[in-house]
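Schema walk-through. Below, the input block comes first and the output block second. Nothing else is stored per chain. Lengths vary across the set, and this one has 308 residues.
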Amino acid sequence: MLKYAIRRILEVVPTTFGILLLTFLLFNVVGGSPAVTVLGKNATAESIAEFNHRYGYDRPLPVQFVTFVGKLAKGDLGYSVELNEPVADVLLRGVGPSLSLTVPILIGGTIVALMLSMLAAAFRGQAVDSAILVGSTVLMSVNYVVWVLAGQFLLSYKAGLFPVWGYSSAWNLALPVMIGIVSSLGMDVRFFRTAILDEMYRPYVLTARAKGISRVAIMTRHVLRNALIPIVTYVSLAIPYLFTGSLLLESFFGIPGLGSVSINAIHSADMAVVRAVVVIGALVYQFVNLATDLAYAWLDPRVSLSKR
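--- output ---
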């Protein structure tokens, strides 16, 4: 496993180089002049020249790219023109609120979805299974924004149970976390149920039943463990987005996370912040994929990473 992990980490290097090159081209070549984007089309030639000289955009593109990569290697993500401070400080200030919102949504949603899907699979074709499937379909049919607006109007404005705006205490996160879990529950339950049902009728499950092992033990010790491989893959796809925040929830509830930071940066044409979010998100996605592959070997001994 160690050799495989080292090989995969080395494979990240050329992929990372490609990501950095593509990001540089998108923001510095395809996207047009950063000076015009920030200063506007009515900016004078003198102000554009001053802006380009200040941020190094008047140098040859290869030199700009080498400088860009060199700064990233040192942890320098650039400078925010809109906020007049280093991008690293902007992102560090927003990553805490984002994680405090997205991590509970991921963990809570996964646990609830697993419980409901195991219950539905254990009673397949019965009233419990039908009720869970109908409920999942209803949850999937409602638009995300509807959940947000309905939660704010009914639970915050009418009932007064939750604050509707701000990030002053943990209670401000209660409603957006609930909405995040409910809105994703329908799709998660249906996927998890399918993965569990794929394992329930395998020969080893029939053997376990013939030996008199209880249904609970079969579901938790045998079926769930083998069904976790597709589930881990499904959940891992959402992990990179934990660090970039939830755009809608942060915007509707006034949470100063990376989602709202990204939206503000796009609106104000603060390309240094947008570029940093894109690069960090791509790097996190790569390392999450590596961690997911390593988790396969732990979950299923039949997976041989040394031969890949």
